[in-house]
Amino acid sequence: MAKKRKMKMEFRYYQMQDGIPILALLGEKWVQNYGRDVDYLHFHNYLEIGFCYSGEGELVLGEEPVRFAGREFTIIPPNFPHTTTSDVGNISKWEYLFIDAEGFLQVAAGTPLRAEKMIQRIYSKALCLKESEYKSLSNKIIKILEIMRASDEFYLEEAKGVLLALLAEVARMNRSSEEENIEEKGKITNMISRSIDYISQCYMEDIRIGDLAKACHISETHFRRVFTSYMHMSPLEYINKVRIQTACEILKKTDESIADIAYKCGFTTNSTFNRNFRQLMGMSPAEWRKRPENYEQQLLKFDIHSEKGW
């Protein structure tokens, strides 16, 4: 039986200059009828932020069609399938920022843990928002566009400052209602931070709570109590959460078998993996993988060709 032919999708690659995390696509080139003679989705290698000054049409974000009009903006993660199509006979004016969010936040966010947390939030969904309803975000986007257009003295330093504020606001906005605030109101103590770093690096191994406590030079009972007070969950619950979050990333981005993913993430049996996954995510790994918001899984269905975007 012949294999079903994959649908077409385009990968648009953008090249950043060394040390510059922002690429701005400005000017009259981006005043056009979008989507003419294009019937396929595309994705980028960087975070895309687009501002629509005028025009009307339809965006497709993953599998969801969304109407757009002037004075709206989009924030689209890398590897997220999408396309923009102006209404017939309609000229739309957009300008775009492509952002190396990961590289930028590894330096600007202060700690790897904070950078990772922000990136996970920012990349969790694609957004199409109205300027009138999200003034703070739209003002920052317009400000960066203006800074990049003027390219005045120290413009990159200024743009990076506004960019950090923008990404922080998006990360806060994308926080899920179920997400634990692991920092509480203050900083995580060095002891807890070391434990978190160890779990992040060694989640695939057999981690014993007693060994974590010994490394912190306290009793296991005291370690459990301190950890739980800061993290609002037990050490074992946190280990399982890290393992399940890692499994979600692999499920979303690959077609590896669930059994292989379970093993990679530190679970010795499929039943233990399935039980913990369902407890945390409310469904089985197979069910979760098929959800439309796991957009990177869609890429595996397409015949992808590459085009340099700029």
From TrEMBL:
The HTH araC/xylS-type domain covers which part of the protein?
A: 193-291
What the entry lists under InterPro entries is as follows: AraC-bd (IPR003313), Homeodomain-like_sf (IPR009057), HTH-like (IPR037923), HTH_AraC (IPR018060), HTH_AraC-typ_CS (IPR018062), RmlC-like_jellyroll (IPR014710), Tscrpt_reg_AraC-type_HTH (IPR020449)
Q: Which residues form the signal peptide?
A: none
Membrane-crossing residue ranges in chain numbering: none
Gene3D superfamilies, A to Z: Homeodomain-like (1.10.10.60), Jelly Rolls (2.60.120.10)
The domain of life is Bacteria
**Keywords linked to the UniProt accession:** DNA-binding, Transcription, Transcription regulation
Q: Pfam families this protein is in?
A: AraC_binding (PF02311), HTH_18 (PF12833)
Q: What is this protein called?
A: AraC family transcriptional regulator
Give the species this sequence originates from.
Blautia faecis
